[in-house]
Structure formats: structure tokens, C-alpha cells
Sequence to fold (491 residues):
Amino acid sequence: MSLNALSTRLAARTLCSGNANALRAGTRSCRVHPAIHTRTFLGSFWSKASSPAHSAQASPEPASPAPAPRQEHLVHDATNAGQLDGTPSKHVAVSIDGDPRTFDTVFLRDSCACPQCVDPDSKQKLFQTSDIPDSLEGRCRTVIDKEKGWMIEVEWRNDLPGYGPEHRTRHSIDWLRRALNTELELRGGVRHDERVLWNKEIIEKNNKWVDYKDWMENDENFFGALSHLNKYGLLFLKNVPDSEESVVDIAGRIGTLKDTFYGRTWDVRSKPKAENIAYTPVFLGLHMDLLYTSNPPHLQLLHSLRARTPGGESFFSDSFHAAHQLHTSSAFHFRTLCTFPVTYHYHHPTHHYHYTRPTIELYPYPKYSEPTNLAIHRVNWSPPFQGPFEARIGGENQTALGNYRSASHAFEKLVSAEENLYEYRLNEGECVIFDNRRVLHARKAFDATKGERWLKGAYVDDDVFFSKLRVLDEKFTGKWLADGVIRHAVK
Fold:
């Protein structure tokens, strides 16, 4: 399709609403309607025209397509592509894909990304939403940007203090379309979820091993590894250099390491009078780390530096898979684990951590919609670090604690079932990375008198991991995910 033909087609489909006669004459105008009869959508910032009279005026599908803009109009500052029309108002009607949409001027003004409103270097806003006057009104026209295509340009009346009459706000039609789609999906109650639930058979078939060099030097391979880690919560690296700093390099490829009272990195090795059961040679059951803190780490990394003792095999189990199984077998047990408060603590002379949380956390659903999928956010399971219960602890006619005991027993049977456990003994030069808020880990006992077992560990927070994943996702696929909604990159 030629550039002129494409421009003609866009002109017919993505215009701000205006006078019907002017549109049929080919004028690409944007009219702001002082009074618009609309059907509001759950209190959102936009609405869809429903009045027949308004629809006739606001749906710019001309009998003859508007003439294609001339080549000289396809420049960044093509402000003459459309003419201002209409009286300033608190709403701006824009036709997107032939369908009129009405935007609140507060939303359009608050989203302004011009250099006066957003610092070009830091990308941070230079004003507050609360600064926007109640009397703000706007009117707009359509313009063409050589990089962003069709846009609306809004002229303001009663703008924020400090902004002169020359200030304009521009938004591309693509950006406005994405804003509408994002709100619809956020309110829809269905979350896009790339995570794959697994048992022993599934993870053995789909497990992923990544070479250390590919992880460190190849962005595309690195993106594939992070995507797999996000889907399954488990990933292995091989050929890792025999250095205490290797785990720092591996974690640093994702972002900043999480520093805890254990240190920026820490050693898992047997020692006398250990302050943590992980630093002993005894059996360590399935658990998650640091549930006694307000923000437990998202990722845990363990690099095997020495593996010279008999025993010490690691186990991994997908707690999300077990939670789904529990929901199928007993909705009552599942609800109990979603509501009963469990206390976790780390109480020593120099450190005292304490936090209470339910075993299963679900994503909150939109106020106006019903859930259509089982959206598990996190699972909290760490029996070795559990403290005394502090609520619903029993008594006459109280059954909550008994219900929790039954539900936790059913859940433990699922996570530790042979068909759900993946067993692997880390060899020297290998590193495992797993989602600490999803994948449970355990370790068999080992004989510390017959050799050395030494793992170097590190943590990475959720914000750091998802930031890196979104950067790479946008780079290689042109999209990114947040709050269960896919956002396509828009210039």
C-alpha cells in the first residue's frame, strides 16, 4: 500500500469527531462537544457515544475519503494537518477505528508528555495531578507526525498555573487505542498468565539448561532464559566459573542483588551451632526463604562450588500446581489456606523478624467483575520458620485452627507427592535459579564428615526481575506485561 493510500485510509478511520458536513468535505477537524450524551463505562475515563444524534455527528466515516495529506505534511510539527474547531469543553471526542470515544480532558492533560510536563532525561512528571484546575477545558485537531502517525493536538483553556496559552498536548491514536484496551482488560477480570504449572513429568520434559557464557553475553539467549524462568519458576546454568563472585555476576545480569541480614551473598555449608537449619547436614523439608520479612525475595540463586559429600540432593516442587490440585479436590481447604493467618519468625539475639500471612494469596479482582480464572499471586509455605499462631488459636466452638491443620495436611501431601517432586543433585559448576514465591525447595541429609558441600547463594527482588524481563520483552517482541495485561509498545 502506498504512503498516500495508507494516509487516506487512516484519515477516514482515526479522526477527532467534528461537524459532519465539514468531514464530508474532507476537512480533518477535531471538534470538542460542550454537551455529549454518552453511555459511561464503569466510571472510566472514556465513554462510548450512544445517542443516535451524537453518533451521526461523532462517527467520521465520510462518503468520500478525506484527501491524503501531502508529503510535506508528514513532518514532526505538522500542525496544519487539521483545523481547530468547536468550543472548549471538559470532554474530547475522538474516532478510533471508526468508533467514537470520549476522553476526559483531565486524563488527556495529566498524560501530557511534552518537555514542559515530563523531563526529557529523567522521564518524570513536572506537575501533579492535583494541580489540574477544575475549570480545565480543551479543544483539539488532528495532526500527522512522521514517526508516530496520526495524533490529536489539544489546546487548553484554564491550563495549570505556569503554562502559557502556547502549551499543547499531543497523543497518538495508537497510544489512545492502547489506553482504552488496557483499561478494558484490567476491568475484565481475566489475567494473562504465562506461567506453566508442572509436576515431575512436565518439568523433566521442559527443564532448561543455559550455558553461563550465553547467559552473560547473549541478550537473546538471556531473554529466552528469563522467559522460561518466569513460566516455570526453575532454571539451571552450567559451566559456571569456580569463583565466589560468579553468583554475583549471574544475579547482576538481572539487576541489583537483594541485601539481607545474611549479606549480599551467603554460604550454604555445614557448621556447628548454626543459626539456620540450612547450615546443618540434616534433612531440610520443602520451604521458601525469608517469609518472616515484609518483602521476601523473588529469586533465589544457588551456585555449587563444592559437591563432594554423599547425599545432599535437592528437591523442587511447584506450589502453584499443588494449590490448583487442592482447589479441585477441596474448595473448602483451598479457601482455608487463603484466609487463615500463619506466623513466620526469625528470633535471635541480634535479629528479630516477624510477619503473618496466609498460605495462598490471590490477585485481587476488579470491583465490577467476577473472577473467571484462578489467579494465584503467591504461595507462602515455610514450616521450618513458622512461629506460634497468634489468631484463631482455638477454644470452645472455634474450628478455624482445626480447619487449617486439615487443609495444610492436604496441601503438604500434594507438594511432597512423588509425582510432583523434581530431584536433582547440583554438581560443581552448576547454578540453580528458582522463584522463591512459587517453587518450594528442600534438601536431603548429607554426611559432612566425608567431604565438602558448599553453595554460594544470592537473592533478587521481584521488581528487579520484572523490570529486566519487560525491557527484554519490549526489545525482542514489541510488548510487555504488567498487572496481567499485555501492553504493546507505542512510540
Observations:
- The two ends are 22 Å apart (CA to CA).
- Residues 3-188 form a domain with the NE0471 N-terminal domain-like fold (CATH 3.30.2020.30).
